[in-house]
Specification:
This protein is α/β, with parallel strands linked by helices. It is built from 12 helices and 14 strands. The longest helix has 18 residues.
């Protein structure tokens, strides 16, 4: 049987990027039950990709009959496009299979060993230099900080953060806010401040301009990468790709995407939307061996789903079966 519902989880404070701010994480949870076993998956509808909780629930409901008749993960890949709806179902199917067979999801996924703990980046929302410095100081004990920027006073922002958190390793994320001219203007200053990665500097669809650009900092595709279909373009423009289950449509595609990206010489960041630990849990399989891990979505909430991932600072422990997998 299929159960699907939209849920709202409050964020601790606000989450601000170049496109706007939000104070709640709106997620959709799928539950599939079969012969006493229950599998769950969680996804985050994203307005950037023309998704809403209503539209995602409707897409999932459109497959109710097929799912209740045993639609497989393989068939799901062509039944729905990449996105939040397919992600929620795909992850629920992985979990259901694990619960039904007793074979953990990591083993079914072909991992050589059980997932190990990973160290996640921690996000500082875009704000004034002073406000970002204050937030960074409060999180200065964390090994990695990810700073949101928007194309205005970005070097000043990062300089303020660097002064407040001198030992933190830094990633910045523009969320498509820069032009090539702006990127070229700020990149040397960001490099001098120790920034190691710039995520999605240019808008997706306009990043052909990156071909031939000699960046002093590793560039990572986010909005420009959804599935393996975009890798041909990304490999010419970026040195790293951010793999998110909500973009690629679930764990099934994510695992294939990571394998192909690595075969092409790309570094991999395992990313997430702001959501509960149920959404982070399957991504922990993708995170194994990733160059960068950005699975702080549940850490940004005022409260998390229980049971959730166990976090000691920025160290996330793999999920237990009662959460997922």
């Amino acid at each position: 049987m299929l159960s699907v519902q939209a849920e709202r989880w409050p964020i601790a404070g606000a989450f601000r990027i170049s496109r706007g701010a939000k104070t709640n994480a709106d997620v959709v949870v799928v539950e599939l039950t079969d012969d006493g076993a229950r599998g769950r998956g969680e996804a985050t509808p994203y307005a950037r990709y023309d998704e809403t909780p209503v539209s995602v629930v409707a897409l999932i409901e459109s497959l109710r009959r097929d799912l209740e008749q045993g639609l497989s993960r393989v068939d799901l890949q062509s039944a729905l496009p990449a996105g939040a709806a397919r992600n929620a179902i795909d992850c629920a199917l992985w979990d259901l299979e694990a619960k039904r067979t007793g074979v953990p999801a990591w083993r079914a996924a072909g991992l050589r060993a059980a997932p190990q703990a990973v160290e996640t980046l921690y996000t500082v929302s875009v704000d004034t230099p002073g406000a970002m410095a204050k937030a960074a100081a409060a999180a200065s004990w964390r090994p990695w900080l990810k700073l949101k920027i928007d194309g205005h006073a970005d070097v000043e922002r990062v300089a303020a953060v660097r002064a407040a958190a001198p030992d933190a390793r830094l990633v910045v994320d523009a969320n498509e806010a820069l032009s090539l001219g702006q990127l070229a203007a700020v990149a040397p200053g960001l490099a001098a401040l120790g920034v190691e990665v710039i995520e999605q500097p240019l808008p997706a669809g306009q990043d052909a301009a990156l071909e031939g650009y000699d960046s002093p900092i590793l560039l990572c595709a986010d909005e420009s990468l959804h599935t393996r279909a975009e890798l041909d373009l990304c490999v010419r423009r970026y040195g790293c790709v951010n793999v998110k289950l909500d973009k690629c449509g679930g764990l099934t595609e994510a695992l294939a995407l990571v394998a192909e990206a690595r075969s092409r010489g790309l570094a991999v960041m395992t990313g997430c939307m702001v959501a509960t630990s149920l959404a982070m849990a399957p991504a922990m399989l993708v995170a194994q061996g990733s160059t960068y891990v950005d699975l702080d979505g549940a850490l940004l909430l005022a409260r998390d789903r229980q049971p959730g991932l166990v976090a000691t600072g920025s160290i996330l422990q793999p999920p237990t079966p009662d959460l997922w997998g």
